Give the backbone structure.
Amino acid sequence: MKQIAIIGAGLSGLTLATQLADIAHITVFEKHDHVSGRMATREHDGYVYDHGAQFFTAKHPAFQGLIDDMVTQGAVARWEAKFAEIDGVYVKAYRDWDASFPHYVGVPSMASVGRWMELQIKQRGVQILFNTQVGALRKTQDAWALLGIGGQLLGHFDWVITTTPAPQAAQLLPDNINYLSTLNDVEMLPCYALMLGFEQPIVRSWDVAHVANHPTLSWISVNSSKPQRHDRNSLVVMSRNLWAKEHFAAPEAWVMHAMMQDLSAILGEQVFSANQRILKKWHFANAPKIPTQQVLVDLKLQLASCGDWCISGRVESAFVSALQLAEALRNELHSEQI
């Protein structure tokens, strides 16, 4: 069986490992100490924040099937939230998220999705190496040598697949790869996630809000309103991507104050009663919808890439991109074995 290295243990990397585990030996390299990528959760002093992806929906049948399995096993639940549309600082409309178009979250945290998938692939013999960042690829006579940041050898592999953001993939992969221009054309935008913890409940008439026509803010979630969350009151606020790009080098204290000041115009002075304030800086938070979807694979070099940025910046896109790449690789690996 072929040896395949997958770089990144977010949803795309975990999906690929699931799809290919029966036809190849899979090793997943993850630079952090946990799976999930941007489906991330932070816990601090009893407060819990989903500070990456806020929820996900499903249109693709295979993704819906995966979600159904996770719902059955208690790793995912529907978030039946009261959703608000905010125009500037004023609520323009409300609607309830219900079973007619389900919105899902991991339970008891968003990171539960990755943890559930991690258990599934480990049971199928997939190895995940945490705290291991791949710094370089070197082509040997018949394989790819993966090197760590310090130059140490991490192993030899027939195929290498990146599931990292496009700019990171472009930096790692060789210049002669046949889809380098595609990687270089992807503009991934940053985002700030502000996490606020409160002793008292947050007074509001909604659980989650999309903020339009606002220079700074784009999204507000009462994280503690999600199913099976801790009792402590927590809020996650996302900046606009272009605002984050403009102010990405600004001091974090300034960014936090600016976001809280604008948030107070929506929620009132109660914002400043937060007894916990944390800021997360996402370098590669979102990507625009791609007009023409592509499966990024170089059959000659035996390199490939996938991720939500191959389709659009949505959770489901990360799954579908990996699914499409896995199908192409299965066909190629099958033909090699004949």
Q: What stands out?
A: The CA atoms of residues 202 and 233 lie 7 Å apart. DSSP finds eight helices and 20 strands in the chain. The chain has a mean pLDDT of 95. The longest strand covers residues 276-286.
